[in-house]
Amino acid sequence: MRVVIDTNVVIAGLRAKRGASFEIVSSMLQNRLDFLISVPLLLEYEEVMKRTAPDLLPHFTLAEKDVFLNGLARFGLRPKIFYLWRPFLRDPDDDMLVELAVAGSATHIVTSNTGDFDGVDHIGIAVTTPQDFYRNKSHL
Question: CATH code at 113?
């Protein structure tokens, strides 16, 4: 099973010490989860962690954020992406997640904003919350 993890799940996982998002992020860093990563998605993670809202993670130094991002880059699967799916969603910033999921044959997009991904199920990709994804622990 391959998955795409939305930025909101990563941030929630780093802010928490337990819970579904925390377990998903931990699984990513321990290489127990086949997650897909792309340059645009990694840059979005970095943008939110460092520039857009640096106060979201005050307990992490810049160096620690870099170590985390490097870990994701190391363990994430990087499929070749062809930009054939735009525009697909209402928010063009979310289209890159669909493109990554299609290119990498993902089974799931994990996000806290499932409503932003209406229609993705029609192309064979399940959109699920971190809590629902974590309930099926067989993939973690």
Answer: 3.40.50.1010
Q: Where are the beta strands (DSSP E) in the chain?
A: 3-5, 108-110, 126-128
Distance from C-alpha of 117 to C-alpha of 120, rounded to nearest angstrom? 6
Total domain count, the chain: 1
Residue with tokens 């810049």: 62
Q: Which residues pair with 3 in a beta bridge?
A: 35, 108
Q: Please give the Cα distance from 102 to 94 (Å, whole number).
A: 13
Domain that holds residue 103: 3-139
Task: List the pLDDT tens digit at each of the 140 positions of the chain.
Answer: 999 999 999 999 999 999 999 999 999 999 999 999 999 999 999 999 998 777 889 889 999 999 999 999 999 999 998 766 666 787 888 999 999 999 999 999 999 999 999 989 999 999 999 999 999 866 66
pTM above 0.85, yes or no: yes
Q: Which residues contact 70 (CB under 8 A, 6 or more apart)?
A: none
CA nearest neighbour of 2 among 130, 69, 113, 102 = 102
* 4 DSSP 8-state letter: E
Q: How many residues are listed for the chain in this entry?
A: 140
